[in-house]
Amino acid sequence: MLTELAAEAGLDEAAATPTEADRQAVGNDIEEAERIGITGVPFFLFGRRLTVSGAQPSELLLEGLKQAAQAGSPA
After folding, report:
1. Among 66, 25, 22, 27, which residue's Cα sits nearest to residue 47?
2. Contact status, residue 17 vs residue 1, Cβ threshold 8 Å
3. Could you give the number of structural domains in the chain?
4. Which has the least CB within 10 A, 32, 38, 43, 54?
């Protein structure tokens, strides 16, 4: 289905076909999300320590980015 939609949109079907590496990466992301307690979206993880769940004002997300930067961790 995804490859058909890609072709309809004028994209290369091969580029829309997931590889085994793509599947593994998604599986790893799902496992990590389960480990840290993500149960819904949107979910933001700043610096691998500060989390924000649900739709939030941009000011709150900016504050999360600032705190992560001050801690010296990637956001």
Report:
1. 66
2. no
3. 2
4. 54
pTM above 0.90, yes or no: no
Neighbours of 68 (CB within 10 A): 19
- Per-residue pLDDT of 21-51, as tens digits, reads 999 999 999 999 999 889 889 999 888 888 8
> How many whole angstroms separate alpha carbon 9 and alpha carbon 5?
6
Give the domain extent around 22.
Answer: 1-35
**Rounded Cα distance, 69 and 75, in Å:** 7
Residues 14 and 47 in one domain: no
**Cβ distance 15 to 25 under 8 Å?**
no
